[in-house]
């Protein structure tokens, strides 16, 4: 009966937005909404047949979570995530170097192109639903207690909790969700505009119900995508321009708020005692520190010395040489500092020196392949990395999406219609990064590179590699990190043996970011994190439209119709098997085009921290879990002071 009333109410309310409706009818609608929506939390927990199975066509059902494929692990009555300790004590401080490795900040707005945003801002905002990191693609109710996918799979409706509030006490309403989507699409960073391109309509049915409609065929990930976006306060941005990059204190609805800060030195995030969602099942045992303090250093050496001196608590080490040689100081020997390796089961990320194909000299695939042949990874790994890394070949390393061997029958079905537009190598064994003899100057690879350059029209003239017009081939490596010099300089030496004049341009972080935004570089190193369920975000990394959009992540300027087609196939896959096939096909095409000089990876995180923290016995499969799940241990801290 209640469901019937809801259906009638929906029709009345929706029609009232565009047509004249009798005032008496509207008054009846209001009374019904008061009755029905006050009962929603109870309705959210009602169980229906097949409610957990998204893999089959079905009538739309209200659900406490969303999953792209398959079943939800946690039932509607779950009390906490399996990897969280619901009895974890609250209190204490965690001071750290953030994993984003930024050296300064000038903005508290992480959602626009302008400025260098502070770290940790994701903890200021809640989303409609939140991730469970022991599942590949599941989210569970946060601001929204439930959602239902529309029968045609072209939309989703979320039902908000009436108790959800921003930090100033104002209730989170459906109109805030509408404001968020419209603002991110029109004024947000390009990554939002790209991923939300197919959100055709978002509307507030009432204060606690928001409905999305999608267009096109790549709508599979959009319900979860919009569910994970931060919900921004419309009333706050009526006073503060959204597109302004500055240090106005932001307003969110999440577990933390910005406390004291000093630009370029630190920013403190303080846990909110009045956080509205602290007792929800999705949050039990999480966000245990009273304070998160992000430290900023311009020099990694000074950063390391500060850790040793106890200036801050935790640091993830990204330099293999330092991890192998420096973490033997007294505090580690005495057990005061722990040096741990945390397993990483997520895709390793797409990391390498990206070649800017927007520049005429890099449009020839033979030039790009030749450049990739000069990197002697085996020498680098042995002499610089202490053999801690594995060479990257795939854009989807450490995942099931990596292409191996020859294409399967299902991959060929996707690739064969475009045979004339693809390199022959796509249909052969998957391209692997070139092996070397480890001498630092593999003559076999250098000779092959020379032949490729000659075939591309670049010949040696008095020791200089030049084209028919006499224009020399030059390459500039752009970086802001001095630690990369030891990796780039041997590459430059090998390029010079080929007659290519190469330089290393070290710039400050602000200039580096600006040059990246405008694609003002030849080669630059970067790393993109890949989702456990890839989808529309791949457009921002590899899509043709992103190649022309300033500040996108398509650093290589990839502009390939087959790549676009395969991204669409990935985004519209209806089963995980289809997704894996399409990703592997895309991987083959990208690898065949030599858009990058692949780097290296490892399936773990190296973390050093002062031994005053405890953590759950079980680590989430797809997350470090440090900030979310660890807690300050008073007994351990007391023992540190007594030593």
Assembly context of the chains:
single chain
CATH top level assignment of the domain at 350-601: Alpha Beta
Portion of residues within helices: 25-40%
**CATH topology type of the domain at 350-601:** Dipeptide-binding Protein, domain 3
| Low-confidence runs of at least 5 consecutive residues | 1-59
Number of strands: 25
Mean pLDDT over the full residue set: 89
Structural class: alpha+beta
Strand order of the largest sheet: 19-18-20-14-21
Shape type: globular
| End-to-end C-alpha gap | 68 Å
Rg (C-alpha, Å): 26 Å
How many alpha or pi helices?
21
Residue fraction in strands: 15-25%
- State the CATH architecture of the domain at 350-601: Roll
Report the major sheet: 5 strands, mixed
Q: CATH-wise, what's the superfamily of the domain at 350-601?
A: Dipeptide-binding Protein, Domain 3
Write the topology of this structure.
Blueprint (H helix, E strand, L loop, with lengths): L1 H15 L6 H16 L1 H5 L20 E3 L25 E4 L32 E3 L6 E4 L2 E6 L5 E6 L13 H14 L2 H6 L3 E8 L2 E6 L7 H6 L28 E7 L3 E6 L19 E5 L4 H9 L5 E4 L2 H6 L4 H4 L3 E7 L6 E6 L9 H8 L4 H7 L6 E2 L17 H7 L27 H13 L3 E3 L2 E3 L7 E6 L5 H13 L3 E6 L2 H9 L5 E6 L9 H5 L1 H4 L13 H12 L3 H17 L3 E3 L1 E2 L2 E7 L2 E2 L11 H4 L1 E2 L1 H9 L1
Parallel strand pairs: 2-11, 18-19, 18-20
Antiparallel strand pairs: 1-4, 3-4, 5-6, 6-8, 7-8, 9-10, 10-11, 12-23, 13-23, 14-20, 14-21, 15-22, 16-17, 24-25
Helix pairs in contact: 1-2, 10-13, 12-19, 18-19
